[in-house]
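Why do we care about 3D structure at all? Because function follows from shape, and shape follows, mostly, from sequence. That is the central idea of this module. The next example makes it concrete: a single protein chain, its amino acid sequence, and then its structure expressed as tokens.
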Amino acid sequence: MQKIIKLTFVILTFSFLGGCASTLKPTELQSVKTVGIINQFPDTPNFVTIGTTIFNNEYAQINDPNFSKLLTDTVVKRLENKGFQARLIDEAQRPNFDMIIELIPRDVYATPGTYGYGVNQRSAFGNAMQANTYMALNIAPYIEGKKKCSACYLQKLMPINIEELPATWNELSDADKQHVSEVLNKNIELSINEILMQTGL
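And the structure:
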């Protein structure tokens, strides 16, 4: 029964990836040479287990800033490969760039305890479901102050091979931390490249 619950959960989550209602056109990008990236994601990913009641819920963080750096670095690398000059900026630097890209964290559809990126596992009546890494975001490109992509949303869940997560990241073994990190890094890179491709970048 537990395996059936896990399999069903994986199928449902992988089927909801999102998309863009409109994309950037090549003509809109002709005048763009410099791109400023505003990363609105939390500095560290979430590490959350959700139980049958609120008394069984545990909310923690993965205390490693490298995941946020990878998110931004993946955007920069893709844009540089497309011929743009790109870097992370703050709000005050907006006027200095031809295009701005905002990375906006979102919740995973119908999944409590998710925001932006991280690790999540749900359980029901003591039965642990599939543990996953996740990415959920909107991307908002602006050219000359005007938003150029509407409803650009993506969510992606990738399973991790841990039967039942502890309450906090620090309670994982070193081997399990490495495994989770590898899967989450892969999820970040794949998600960023996929949503940028969907927007026309």
